[in-house]
Design goal:
Strand content: 15-25%
Number of helices: 14
Bound molecules: uridine-diphosphate-2(N-acetylglucosaminyl) butyric acid
Helix content: 25-40%
Structural class: alpha/beta
Distance between the termini: 25 Å
Strand order of the largest sheet: 22-23-1-24
Shape: globular
Radius of gyration: 21 Å
Length: 430
Protein backbone atom coordinates (compact mmCIF):
# COMPACT_ATOMS: atom_id res chain seq x y z
CA UNK A 1 0.00 0.00 0.00
CA UNK A 2 1.30 3.46 -0.89
CA UNK A 3 2.06 5.77 1.99
CA UNK A 4 3.23 9.35 2.27
CA UNK A 5 6.24 9.65 4.54
CA UNK A 6 7.17 13.00 6.06
CA UNK A 7 10.14 13.90 8.20
CA UNK A 8 8.75 17.05 9.76
CA UNK A 9 10.24 20.22 11.09
CA UNK A 10 11.33 22.06 7.91
CA UNK A 11 9.91 25.55 7.45
CA UNK A 12 8.52 25.84 3.90
CA UNK A 13 10.26 28.35 1.63
CA UNK A 14 9.90 29.32 -2.01
CA UNK A 15 7.13 29.49 -4.59
CA UNK A 16 4.34 27.11 -5.50
CA UNK A 17 1.93 27.17 -8.44
CA UNK A 18 -1.73 26.33 -7.82
CA UNK A 19 -3.55 24.01 -10.26
CA UNK A 20 -7.04 24.20 -11.73
CA UNK A 21 -9.98 23.85 -9.34
CA UNK A 22 -11.17 20.29 -8.66
CA UNK A 23 -14.71 21.31 -7.83
CA UNK A 24 -14.98 23.38 -11.02
CA UNK A 25 -13.51 20.79 -13.37
CA UNK A 26 -15.73 17.98 -12.06
CA UNK A 27 -18.77 20.09 -13.05
CA UNK A 28 -17.34 21.39 -16.33
CA UNK A 29 -16.34 17.97 -17.73
CA UNK A 30 -19.96 16.65 -17.57
CA UNK A 31 -21.17 20.04 -18.88
CA UNK A 32 -19.37 19.37 -22.19
CA UNK A 33 -22.14 16.84 -22.93
CA UNK A 34 -24.56 19.72 -23.43
CA UNK A 35 -22.68 21.13 -26.43
CA UNK A 36 -22.71 18.14 -28.78
CA UNK A 37 -19.50 19.62 -30.14
CA UNK A 38 -15.79 19.92 -29.31
CA UNK A 39 -14.56 21.80 -26.21
CA UNK A 40 -10.94 22.54 -25.39
CA UNK A 41 -10.37 22.91 -21.66
CA UNK A 42 -7.14 24.23 -20.16
CA UNK A 43 -5.72 24.27 -16.64
CA UNK A 44 -7.07 20.79 -15.86
CA UNK A 45 -5.51 19.48 -12.63
CA UNK A 46 -3.77 16.06 -12.61
CA UNK A 47 -5.96 14.43 -9.99
CA UNK A 48 -7.67 11.06 -9.87
CA UNK A 49 -11.19 12.57 -9.79
CA UNK A 50 -10.51 13.96 -13.26
CA UNK A 51 -9.36 10.53 -14.44
CA UNK A 52 -12.66 9.05 -13.26
CA UNK A 53 -14.65 11.81 -15.01
CA UNK A 54 -12.74 11.17 -18.24
CA UNK A 55 -13.43 7.43 -18.06
CA UNK A 56 -17.15 8.04 -17.49
CA UNK A 57 -17.35 10.39 -20.49
CA UNK A 58 -15.45 7.88 -22.64
CA UNK A 59 -17.84 5.10 -21.59
CA UNK A 60 -20.72 7.32 -22.67
CA UNK A 61 -19.11 7.62 -26.11
CA UNK A 62 -17.11 10.86 -25.96
CA UNK A 63 -13.71 11.15 -27.64
CA UNK A 64 -11.07 12.77 -25.50
CA UNK A 65 -7.61 13.91 -26.56
CA UNK A 66 -4.90 15.15 -24.31
CA UNK A 67 -3.42 18.19 -26.06
CA UNK A 68 -0.77 18.76 -23.40
CA UNK A 69 -0.39 17.84 -19.75
CA UNK A 70 -3.20 20.14 -18.58
CA UNK A 71 -5.35 20.59 -21.68
CA UNK A 72 -8.06 18.27 -22.90
CA UNK A 73 -10.11 18.32 -26.06
CA UNK A 74 -13.49 16.71 -25.46
CA UNK A 75 -15.71 15.76 -28.38
CA UNK A 76 -19.21 14.80 -27.26
CA UNK A 77 -20.82 14.70 -30.73
CA UNK A 78 -21.19 10.93 -30.83
CA UNK A 79 -22.39 10.28 -27.28
CA UNK A 80 -25.45 8.05 -27.37
CA UNK A 81 -25.57 6.43 -23.93
CA UNK A 82 -27.45 7.96 -20.99
CA UNK A 83 -26.35 5.33 -18.44
CA UNK A 84 -23.63 5.30 -15.76
CA UNK A 85 -23.32 2.17 -13.62
CA UNK A 86 -22.20 1.65 -10.03
CA UNK A 87 -18.62 0.77 -10.94
CA UNK A 88 -17.84 4.32 -12.08
CA UNK A 89 -20.40 6.28 -10.06
CA UNK A 90 -19.28 4.99 -6.67
CA UNK A 91 -15.78 6.36 -7.23
CA UNK A 92 -16.73 9.98 -6.69
CA UNK A 93 -19.47 12.24 -5.44
CA UNK A 94 -19.54 14.50 -8.47
CA UNK A 95 -20.60 11.64 -10.75
CA UNK A 96 -24.11 12.88 -9.97
CA UNK A 97 -23.47 15.93 -12.19
CA UNK A 98 -24.01 13.55 -15.08
CA UNK A 99 -27.69 13.39 -14.07
CA UNK A 100 -28.20 17.08 -14.82
CA UNK A 101 -25.95 17.01 -17.89
CA UNK A 102 -27.53 13.88 -19.44
CA UNK A 103 -31.04 15.10 -18.62
CA UNK A 104 -30.17 18.42 -20.29
CA UNK A 105 -28.84 16.63 -23.38
CA UNK A 106 -31.26 13.72 -23.83
CA UNK A 107 -34.21 14.44 -21.50
CA UNK A 108 -33.33 11.17 -19.78
CA UNK A 109 -30.57 9.75 -17.59
CA UNK A 110 -29.80 6.58 -15.65
CA UNK A 111 -27.07 7.17 -13.09
CA UNK A 112 -26.11 4.97 -10.14
CA UNK A 113 -26.05 6.84 -6.82
CA UNK A 114 -22.67 8.49 -6.15
CA UNK A 115 -19.79 7.76 -3.76
CA UNK A 116 -17.30 10.32 -2.39
CA UNK A 117 -16.03 11.53 0.99
CA UNK A 118 -18.16 10.44 3.91
CA UNK A 119 -19.18 13.23 6.30
CA UNK A 120 -22.40 11.60 7.48
CA UNK A 121 -25.59 11.50 5.45
CA UNK A 122 -25.26 13.22 2.07
CA UNK A 123 -28.82 13.43 0.69
CA UNK A 124 -29.69 14.55 -2.85
CA UNK A 125 -33.30 15.50 -2.12
CA UNK A 126 -32.71 19.08 -3.30
CA UNK A 127 -31.32 17.90 -6.64
CA UNK A 128 -34.42 15.74 -7.11
CA UNK A 129 -36.74 18.57 -6.07
CA UNK A 130 -35.11 20.77 -8.70
CA UNK A 131 -35.27 18.20 -11.52
CA UNK A 132 -38.95 17.58 -10.72
CA UNK A 133 -39.65 21.33 -10.83
CA UNK A 134 -38.32 21.31 -14.41
CA UNK A 135 -40.82 18.56 -15.28
CA UNK A 136 -38.69 15.41 -14.88
CA UNK A 137 -39.98 12.18 -13.35
CA UNK A 138 -37.43 10.76 -10.93
CA UNK A 139 -37.29 7.29 -9.43
CA UNK A 140 -34.58 5.28 -7.70
CA UNK A 141 -34.73 1.55 -8.36
CA UNK A 142 -33.91 -1.27 -5.92
CA UNK A 143 -30.30 -1.43 -7.12
CA UNK A 144 -29.74 2.26 -6.32
CA UNK A 145 -29.87 3.58 -9.88
CA UNK A 146 -31.59 6.94 -10.34
CA UNK A 147 -33.80 7.16 -13.42
CA UNK A 148 -34.72 10.62 -14.69
CA UNK A 149 -37.04 11.26 -17.59
CA UNK A 150 -38.87 14.25 -19.04
CA UNK A 151 -40.93 14.67 -22.22
CA UNK A 152 -39.67 18.21 -22.30
CA UNK A 153 -37.81 20.21 -19.65
CA UNK A 154 -39.56 23.47 -18.84
CA UNK A 155 -38.03 26.39 -16.93
CA UNK A 156 -39.42 27.07 -13.46
CA UNK A 157 -38.66 28.81 -10.15
CA UNK A 158 -36.80 26.55 -7.75
CA UNK A 159 -36.59 27.34 -4.06
CA UNK A 160 -34.06 25.12 -2.36
CA UNK A 161 -34.52 24.35 1.34
CA UNK A 162 -30.76 24.44 1.91
CA UNK A 163 -27.93 26.14 0.08
CA UNK A 164 -26.32 23.30 -1.88
CA UNK A 165 -23.35 23.50 -4.22
CA UNK A 166 -24.23 20.20 -5.89
CA UNK A 167 -27.94 20.93 -6.34
CA UNK A 168 -27.21 24.41 -7.76
CA UNK A 169 -24.76 22.93 -10.29
CA UNK A 170 -27.02 20.03 -11.25
CA UNK A 171 -29.94 22.39 -11.84
CA UNK A 172 -27.82 24.75 -13.92
CA UNK A 173 -26.85 21.78 -16.10
CA UNK A 174 -30.43 20.55 -16.49
CA UNK A 175 -31.96 24.00 -17.05
CA UNK A 176 -29.57 25.48 -19.55
CA UNK A 177 -31.51 24.07 -22.52
CA UNK A 178 -34.94 23.85 -20.84
CA UNK A 179 -37.62 25.96 -22.48
CA UNK A 180 -38.20 29.33 -20.76
CA UNK A 181 -36.82 30.90 -17.60
CA UNK A 182 -35.42 29.01 -14.60
CA UNK A 183 -34.75 30.86 -11.36
CA UNK A 184 -32.63 29.13 -8.69
CA UNK A 185 -32.86 30.46 -5.12
CA UNK A 186 -31.06 30.42 -2.74
CA UNK A 187 -28.17 29.51 -5.06
CA UNK A 188 -24.75 28.49 -3.81
CA UNK A 189 -22.14 31.19 -4.52
CA UNK A 190 -18.86 29.25 -4.51
CA UNK A 191 -16.23 30.22 -7.12
CA UNK A 192 -16.86 26.97 -9.00
CA UNK A 193 -20.53 27.92 -9.50
CA UNK A 194 -19.38 31.10 -11.25
CA UNK A 195 -16.81 29.13 -13.24
CA UNK A 196 -19.44 26.69 -14.47
CA UNK A 197 -21.75 29.57 -15.45
CA UNK A 198 -18.89 31.24 -17.37
CA UNK A 199 -18.13 27.96 -19.13
CA UNK A 200 -21.79 27.39 -20.09
CA UNK A 201 -22.11 31.01 -21.26
CA UNK A 202 -19.00 30.51 -23.42
CA UNK A 203 -20.94 27.66 -25.06
CA UNK A 204 -23.85 30.03 -25.81
CA UNK A 205 -25.95 29.65 -22.63
CA UNK A 206 -27.79 32.59 -21.06
CA UNK A 207 -27.05 32.43 -17.32
CA UNK A 208 -27.05 35.52 -15.12
CA UNK A 209 -26.47 36.11 -11.43
CA UNK A 210 -23.98 33.30 -10.72
CA UNK A 211 -22.10 34.27 -7.57
CA UNK A 212 -25.26 35.81 -6.03
CA UNK A 213 -28.22 34.20 -4.23
CA UNK A 214 -30.32 34.23 -7.41
CA UNK A 215 -29.33 32.58 -10.66
CA UNK A 216 -31.51 33.18 -13.73
CA UNK A 217 -31.21 30.85 -16.69
CA UNK A 218 -32.99 31.52 -19.95
CA UNK A 219 -33.05 28.25 -21.87
CA UNK A 220 -31.37 28.17 -25.30
CA UNK A 221 -31.99 25.61 -28.06
CA UNK A 222 -28.41 24.69 -28.77
CA UNK A 223 -24.95 25.09 -27.28
CA UNK A 224 -21.65 25.03 -29.16
CA UNK A 225 -18.06 24.05 -28.36
CA UNK A 226 -15.67 26.54 -26.81
CA UNK A 227 -12.19 27.05 -25.39
CA UNK A 228 -12.02 27.59 -21.67
CA UNK A 229 -9.50 27.68 -18.81
CA UNK A 230 -10.50 26.39 -15.35
CA UNK A 231 -10.04 28.81 -12.41
CA UNK A 232 -7.32 28.13 -9.82
CA UNK A 233 -8.26 25.87 -6.91
CA UNK A 234 -9.32 27.89 -3.87
CA UNK A 235 -8.87 25.00 -1.47
CA UNK A 236 -5.52 23.84 -2.83
CA UNK A 237 -4.30 27.44 -2.46
CA UNK A 238 -5.69 27.63 1.07
CA UNK A 239 -3.99 24.34 1.95
CA UNK A 240 -0.55 25.73 0.93
CA UNK A 241 -1.31 28.98 2.76
CA UNK A 242 -2.00 27.13 5.99
CA UNK A 243 0.98 24.80 5.48
CA UNK A 244 3.29 27.81 5.02
CA UNK A 245 1.86 29.45 8.15
CA UNK A 246 1.95 26.30 10.29
CA UNK A 247 5.60 25.53 9.47
CA UNK A 248 6.62 29.16 10.17
CA UNK A 249 7.55 29.35 6.51
CA UNK A 250 7.77 32.03 3.85
CA UNK A 251 5.98 31.07 0.62
CA UNK A 252 4.66 32.81 -2.48
CA UNK A 253 1.54 31.01 -3.70
CA UNK A 254 1.09 31.71 -7.40
CA UNK A 255 -1.80 31.41 -9.88
CA UNK A 256 -4.56 32.22 -7.39
CA UNK A 257 -7.54 34.58 -7.32
CA UNK A 258 -6.96 36.41 -4.01
CA UNK A 259 -10.64 37.40 -3.79
CA UNK A 260 -11.53 33.69 -3.48
CA UNK A 261 -9.13 33.37 -0.55
CA UNK A 262 -10.42 36.29 1.54
CA UNK A 263 -12.05 34.25 4.31
CA UNK A 264 -8.90 32.11 4.63
CA UNK A 265 -6.59 35.14 4.58
CA UNK A 266 -8.75 36.81 7.26
CA UNK A 267 -8.34 33.85 9.62
CA UNK A 268 -4.59 33.67 9.03
CA UNK A 269 -4.28 37.40 9.74
CA UNK A 270 -6.24 36.86 12.95
CA UNK A 271 -3.66 34.21 13.86
CA UNK A 272 -0.89 36.79 13.42
CA UNK A 273 0.38 35.36 10.11
CA UNK A 274 1.58 37.82 7.44
CA UNK A 275 -0.64 37.67 4.34
CA UNK A 276 0.21 39.89 1.39
CA UNK A 277 -2.05 39.87 -1.67
CA UNK A 278 -0.87 40.58 -5.20
CA UNK A 279 -2.81 40.43 -8.49
CA UNK A 280 -2.61 36.65 -8.86
CA UNK A 281 -0.52 35.48 -5.92
CA UNK A 282 -0.42 35.62 -2.12
CA UNK A 283 2.64 35.75 0.09
CA UNK A 284 2.46 33.98 3.45
CA UNK A 285 5.00 34.42 6.23
CA UNK A 286 4.39 32.47 9.40
CA UNK A 287 5.23 33.24 13.03
CA UNK A 288 6.66 30.76 15.52
CA UNK A 289 3.52 30.40 17.59
CA UNK A 290 0.30 31.56 15.86
CA UNK A 291 -2.51 33.24 17.84
CA UNK A 292 -5.58 31.20 18.69
CA UNK A 293 -8.93 32.04 17.03
CA UNK A 294 -12.47 30.75 16.61
CA UNK A 295 -13.94 29.80 13.27
CA UNK A 296 -17.32 28.73 11.94
CA UNK A 297 -17.56 27.09 8.53
CA UNK A 298 -20.14 28.62 6.21
CA UNK A 299 -21.11 28.49 2.53
CA UNK A 300 -19.15 30.95 0.35
CA UNK A 301 -18.12 33.70 1.05
CA UNK A 302 -17.77 32.30 4.59
CA UNK A 303 -14.87 30.17 5.79
CA UNK A 304 -14.98 26.96 3.65
CA UNK A 305 -15.70 23.66 5.32
CA UNK A 306 -13.09 22.17 2.96
CA UNK A 307 -10.40 24.18 4.83
CA UNK A 308 -11.59 23.21 8.30
CA UNK A 309 -9.28 20.20 8.92
CA UNK A 310 -6.20 22.07 7.65
CA UNK A 311 -6.90 25.07 9.88
CA UNK A 312 -7.35 22.72 12.85
CA UNK A 313 -3.68 21.74 12.50
CA UNK A 314 -2.57 25.38 12.67
CA UNK A 315 -4.77 25.97 15.71
CA UNK A 316 -3.35 22.83 17.37
CA UNK A 317 0.00 24.61 17.67
CA UNK A 318 -1.47 28.06 18.43
CA UNK A 319 -0.97 30.01 21.61
CA UNK A 320 -4.24 29.51 23.52
CA UNK A 321 -7.59 27.85 22.99
CA UNK A 322 -9.64 27.86 19.80
CA UNK A 323 -13.05 26.58 18.76
CA UNK A 324 -14.15 25.31 15.35
CA UNK A 325 -17.88 25.11 14.61
CA UNK A 326 -18.76 23.01 11.58
CA UNK A 327 -22.06 24.22 10.15
CA UNK A 328 -22.09 22.54 6.71
CA UNK A 329 -21.53 18.82 7.43
CA UNK A 330 -22.83 16.71 10.33
CA UNK A 331 -19.71 14.63 10.78
CA UNK A 332 -16.50 16.25 9.64
CA UNK A 333 -14.30 15.72 12.70
CA UNK A 334 -13.29 12.10 12.16
CA UNK A 335 -9.72 13.18 11.36
CA UNK A 336 -9.25 14.53 14.87
CA UNK A 337 -8.62 11.02 16.17
CA UNK A 338 -5.54 11.00 13.91
CA UNK A 339 -4.35 14.42 15.11
CA UNK A 340 -4.63 13.22 18.72
CA UNK A 341 -2.07 10.51 17.87
CA UNK A 342 0.32 13.29 16.93
CA UNK A 343 -0.06 15.06 20.27
CA UNK A 344 -2.82 17.56 19.45
CA UNK A 345 -5.19 18.40 22.32
CA UNK A 346 -8.68 18.49 20.88
CA UNK A 347 -12.10 17.46 22.14
CA UNK A 348 -15.24 17.22 20.03
CA UNK A 349 -18.80 17.88 21.09
CA UNK A 350 -21.26 17.38 18.23
CA UNK A 351 -20.43 19.86 15.50
CA UNK A 352 -17.85 21.80 17.57
CA UNK A 353 -14.18 21.06 18.22
CA UNK A 354 -12.29 22.63 21.12
CA UNK A 355 -8.56 22.94 20.56
CA UNK A 356 -6.04 23.60 23.29
CA UNK A 357 -2.93 24.92 21.57
CA UNK A 358 0.23 22.99 22.28
CA UNK A 359 3.89 23.82 21.63
CA UNK A 360 4.57 21.01 19.16
CA UNK A 361 3.23 17.87 17.47
CA UNK A 362 5.11 14.61 17.05
CA UNK A 363 5.19 12.24 14.08
CA UNK A 364 2.97 9.12 14.09
CA UNK A 365 1.38 6.58 11.75
CA UNK A 366 -1.93 8.14 10.69
CA UNK A 367 -4.67 7.70 8.10
CA UNK A 368 -6.24 10.04 5.52
CA UNK A 369 -9.93 9.65 6.40
CA UNK A 370 -11.00 11.72 3.40
CA UNK A 371 -9.55 14.24 0.97
CA UNK A 372 -9.23 17.33 3.19
CA UNK A 373 -8.53 15.22 6.27
CA UNK A 374 -5.62 13.82 4.26
CA UNK A 375 -4.37 17.34 3.49
CA UNK A 376 -4.53 18.11 7.19
CA UNK A 377 -2.41 15.01 7.95
CA UNK A 378 0.20 16.23 5.46
CA UNK A 379 0.36 19.64 7.13
CA UNK A 380 0.53 18.03 10.57
CA UNK A 381 3.38 15.80 9.34
CA UNK A 382 5.27 18.84 8.02
CA UNK A 383 4.89 20.58 11.39
CA UNK A 384 5.61 17.58 13.62
CA UNK A 385 8.93 16.54 15.07
CA UNK A 386 9.93 13.12 13.73
CA UNK A 387 8.40 10.91 11.08
CA UNK A 388 4.76 10.71 10.03
CA UNK A 389 3.42 7.93 7.82
CA UNK A 390 0.08 8.57 6.14
CA UNK A 391 -2.05 5.65 4.90
CA UNK A 392 -5.02 5.61 2.53
CA UNK A 393 -3.54 8.37 0.46
CA UNK A 394 -5.81 7.67 -2.52
CA UNK A 395 -8.12 10.20 -0.88
CA UNK A 396 -5.42 12.86 -1.22
CA UNK A 397 -4.74 11.97 -4.86
CA UNK A 398 -8.41 12.61 -5.64
CA UNK A 399 -7.94 16.34 -5.25
CA UNK A 400 -4.30 17.47 -4.91
CA UNK A 401 -2.19 17.76 -8.07
CA UNK A 402 1.41 16.54 -7.49
CA UNK A 403 1.21 17.33 -3.81
CA UNK A 404 4.46 15.55 -2.98
CA UNK A 405 6.50 17.31 -5.65
CA UNK A 406 4.99 20.68 -4.74
CA UNK A 407 5.89 20.31 -1.05
CA UNK A 408 9.34 18.94 -1.97
CA UNK A 409 9.95 22.07 -4.05
CA UNK A 410 9.20 24.12 -0.93
CA UNK A 411 11.89 22.26 1.02
CA UNK A 412 9.75 19.62 2.74
CA UNK A 413 11.19 16.16 3.43
CA UNK A 414 8.21 14.25 2.01
CA UNK A 415 8.05 11.26 -0.31
CA UNK A 416 5.87 8.44 -1.51
CA UNK A 417 6.80 4.97 -0.33
CA UNK A 418 6.30 2.09 -2.81
CA UNK A 419 6.59 4.31 -5.86
CA UNK A 420 10.08 4.26 -7.36
CA UNK A 421 9.27 7.09 -9.75
CA UNK A 422 8.05 9.27 -6.89
CA UNK A 423 5.36 10.74 -9.11
CA UNK A 424 1.98 12.24 -8.27
CA UNK A 425 -1.23 11.47 -10.12
CA UNK A 426 -0.85 11.92 -13.85
CA UNK A 427 -3.81 12.58 -16.13
CA UNK A 428 -4.80 9.40 -17.88
CA UNK A 429 -6.44 9.58 -21.28
CA UNK A 430 -6.69 6.39 -23.26
N1 LIG B 1 -27.81 18.87 1.33
C1 LIG B 1 -29.08 18.40 1.51
N2 LIG B 1 -29.77 17.96 0.41
C2 LIG B 1 -29.24 17.97 -0.84
C3 LIG B 1 -27.92 18.46 -1.02
C4 LIG B 1 -27.23 18.91 0.09
O1 LIG B 1 -29.60 18.38 2.62
O2 LIG B 1 -29.94 17.56 -1.79
C5 LIG B 1 -27.04 19.35 2.50
C6 LIG B 1 -25.81 18.50 2.77
O3 LIG B 1 -26.13 17.36 3.54
C7 LIG B 1 -24.91 19.48 3.48
C8 LIG B 1 -25.26 20.83 2.82
O4 LIG B 1 -26.52 20.65 2.20
O5 LIG B 1 -25.23 19.53 4.84
C9 LIG B 1 -24.27 21.32 1.78
O6 LIG B 1 -24.03 20.30 0.82
P1 LIG B 1 -23.64 20.64 -0.69
O7 LIG B 1 -24.67 20.06 -1.58
O8 LIG B 1 -23.34 22.10 -0.81
O9 LIG B 1 -22.28 19.83 -0.87
P2 LIG B 1 -21.83 18.98 -2.11
O10 LIG B 1 -22.26 19.66 -3.36
O11 LIG B 1 -22.15 17.55 -1.91
C10 LIG B 1 -19.62 20.33 -2.46
C11 LIG B 1 -18.16 20.00 -2.57
C12 LIG B 1 -17.63 19.58 -1.21
C13 LIG B 1 -17.89 20.70 -0.21
C14 LIG B 1 -19.36 21.11 -0.21
C15 LIG B 1 -19.62 22.33 0.65
C16 LIG B 1 -17.96 19.22 -4.83
C17 LIG B 1 -17.73 18.08 -5.75
N3 LIG B 1 -18.00 18.94 -3.53
O12 LIG B 1 -20.24 19.14 -2.00
O13 LIG B 1 -16.23 19.45 -1.40
O14 LIG B 1 -17.53 20.26 1.10
O15 LIG B 1 -19.78 21.41 -1.55
O16 LIG B 1 -18.89 23.43 0.22
O17 LIG B 1 -18.06 20.37 -5.26
C18 LIG B 1 -14.11 18.55 -1.10
O18 LIG B 1 -13.74 19.17 -2.12
O19 LIG B 1 -13.31 18.00 -0.30
C19 LIG B 1 -15.54 18.45 -0.81
C20 LIG B 1 -16.05 17.54 -0.02
Amino acid sequence: MEKIIINGGNALHGEVEISGAKNAVVAIIPATLLAQDVCRIENIPSISDVNVMIKILQQLGAEIKMINKNTLEIDTRHVLSDTIGHEMSKQMRASYYFIGALLGRFNHARVAMPGGCSFGVRPIDQHIKGFEALGADISIDKTGVLNAHADKLLGNSINFDVVSVGATINLMLAAVKARGLTIIEPAAKEPHIVDLANFLNSMGADIRGAGTDTIKIRGVEKLHGCEYAIIPDQIEAGTYMVAAAATNGDVLIKNVIPKHLESISAKLLECGVLVEEFDDSVHIKGIRRPNHCNVKTMPHPGFPTDMQPQLAVLLSIANGNSMISESVWDNRFRYIEQLLRMGAKISVDGKSAFIEGTDSLHGAPVRADDLRAGAAMVIAGLVAEGTTEIEEIYHIKRGYDHIIEKFQSLGADIYLRDDPDNRGTVLEVG
